[in-house]
Amino acid sequence: MQFEWDSEPAIHNWRIEKISVEKIRIDITCYEDGIKTSPGNKEFSEECEFNQFITEVVNSLEALLKDHGIIGYRKQWYAQDFPLSSYLQLNHYLLNSCSYPTKISNPGEWIEKIETNLNDELELIKKNIL
Question: Where do the domains of the chain lie?
């Protein structure tokens, strides 16, 4: 997996590679002034436990929610919504070592409906954020 983080005026390119079921490798390369034609400077290159990485992501997301709130986050980050769904799924994975439970009605049909339990989602937020 690879993505870019716009850290004006630079661009940070993140590359996350699965090494094994338990480990990932993270490489971060910085391109000064956003110019990717140059080789860039490797700023970070480490292996880590997959669950530890997810834990750090979840902790960072929780810190952002506690600091800004959902609406405050959107106003702070120029109309970008907080990744609430991703947070809930990652947090559930850490607590239960499995994907977030979904219910699919009429699978494969044109009126397929995918549901999750809103009460469970709110409880997860209350348990970890409030």
Answer: 2-129
